Amino acid sequence: LHEDQDGVSQECRHLMSSLPRDKGWVVKHLFKYQGFWHTTRQVQGVLACQKLFQAQETDLFLVTTPKSGTTWLKAMAFAIVNRNRYPRIDHHPLLSSNPHDLVPFLELKLYVDNNVPDLTNLVSPRLFSTHMPYITLPDSIKDLECKIVYLCRNPRDTLISLWHFSNKLRPKTIGNISLEDAFERFCKGLSLYGPFWDHVLEYWQQSLERPERVLFLKYEEIKAEPKVHLRRLAEFLGYPFSLEEEKLGMVDEILKLCSFDSLSNLEVNRMGKLSTGEDNKAFFRRGEVGDSTNYLTPEMIEHLDVITENKFIGSGLEF
Ligand code: A3P
Fold first, then answer.
1. Domain Sulfotransferase spans what residues (predicted)?
2. Measured from the CA of 291, which atom of ligand 1 is nearest?
3. SS3 assignment, position 204
4. Ligand 1 mean position, distance from CA 112 (Å)
5. Ligand 1 atom at shortest distance from the alpha carbon of 74
6. How confident is the model at residue 60, as a pLDDT?
7. Which member of 38, 131, 164, 229 is catalytic?
8. Does ligand 1 come within 6 angstroms of the Cβ of 285?
9. Exposed e or buried b for every residue in 93-132, given b needs 16+ CB within 10 A?
10. pLDDT reported for residue 4
């Protein structure tokens, strides 16, 4: 992983010198930009996207809070949208590429480290992903009213997943971040793209105002009723399953292809790395609902639940 200030442009350094900063989970610092916490590298990527990324009307955006099942959502959306291009499941790109390589992050892959991507050869519809909060999204995405799928997960499991992930990415020399420390920072909103609750609320409100433009999904709900939500996702994206496809078992086939068990056992996801340096296997841990109860004390859970209730009060949103 890159050190905090490596390869950072003059413009970005200048901006960051005026931003609130605090301790990071993996790299030294987090900076608060437009109300949310980012690493240096992300701030630079976000600024580049805001300046350079030009959306097209047919673009589809997958937006998540970190560790809420982004990898899973990318796999499902990619499989849905491209099912006519790749009718043979035994030759499917998801068997040889990590979902993050098939659906690139705007600020973490395409525009990271001063990269200016060539997007001219991408087939339509272009599928992109981002963790950017709504307020930060490049203007053209909002102006063109592009479709956005937003996925989040209950804050307890999100925190535990983020804690494990951060410890995997932390340089060995600095050791692990303790659970108590991670918990305290998360509760204060001091986590990657946090405050978690503000991120979720922004997109929740957008989904209420414009349901045809923003689909709001929860990890737990997909886990509980995968078929229902895969169909919902396909319809929203504009690729509903036909009666014929339903009869052929296409819904089950896609769910199986994208399941935790199949993806996590593939060679590419056990041994491969992303171009941005992370091990593919870091994105697959347990993939279950409620694992946080194995780590958080009842007091911690209660504390977190009270924050969630207070933040979401009157919004109609619950976890
Ligand atoms: P856990 O750490 O709780 O296991 P993200 O993809 O946003 O980084 O989120 C990672 C979380 O999603 C991890 O949660 C990971 O195990 C889980 N995950 C990854 N692939 C999945 C899949 N195909 N189905 C369900 N969960 C998955």
1. 58-315
2. 3
3. helix
4. 23
5. 6
6. 98
7. 131
8. yes
9. ebbebbbbbbbbbbbbbbbbeeeeeeeeeeeebbbbbbbb
10. 58
Taking the C-alpha atoms of residue 29 and residue 17, their distance in angstroms, rounded to an integer, is: 12
In whole angstroms, what is the distance from residue 197 CA to residue 217 CA? 15
Segments in the chain below pLDDT 50 = 1-2
- Which tokens belong to 184? 């305290």
Distance 170 CA to ligand 1 centre (A): 19
- Number of H helices and E strands in the chain, helices first, is 15, 7
Q: Is the CB of 164 within 6 Å of ligand 1?
A: yes
For 72-130, the pLDDT digits (tens) are: 999 999 999 999 999 888 999 999 999 999 999 999 999 999 899 999 999 999 999 99
With beta carbons less than 8 A apart as the criterion, state whether 207 and 49 touch.
no
Please confirm, yes or no, whether 303 is among the known catalytic residues: no
Residue type, 314: G
- Between the CA of 282 and the centroid of ligand 1 the distance, in Å, is 9
Structural tokens at position 15: 């901006």
The answer, yes or no, to whether any atom of ligand 1 lies below 6 A from the CB of 72, is yes
